[in-house]
Design goal:
single chain; mainly alpha
Amino acid sequence: AVSAFQRFSIAEEKRLEAKRIECDGRIALQMQAVAGKRRDVRLLEKMKERRLDAWRGEVNRENDALAEEAYLARWNRESRRPQIHTPAADSHR
C-alpha cells in the first residue's frame, strides 16, 4: 500500500510541476501582453497630447487673428471719424 501511495505521490508531484510550468508560461505571455498594451496606451496618450497641443495652437492663432482684426476694425472706424476741433479743446492741449 505504501508503494502505491509513493507512486501516486510522485506522479502527482510531476503533474503539479508540469501544471506550474504551464501556468508560468501563461503568466509570462500575459505579462508581455500587458507590457505591450501599456506601450500602446503611452503612445496613444502622446498622440492625444500632440493633437491637443496642435489644436490649442490653432485656437490661439485664430484668437490672435480675431483680436487683430477687431483692433484694426476699431482703429479704422476711429481714424475715419471727422475730427472736431473746438477752441476749448485745443486750449487744453
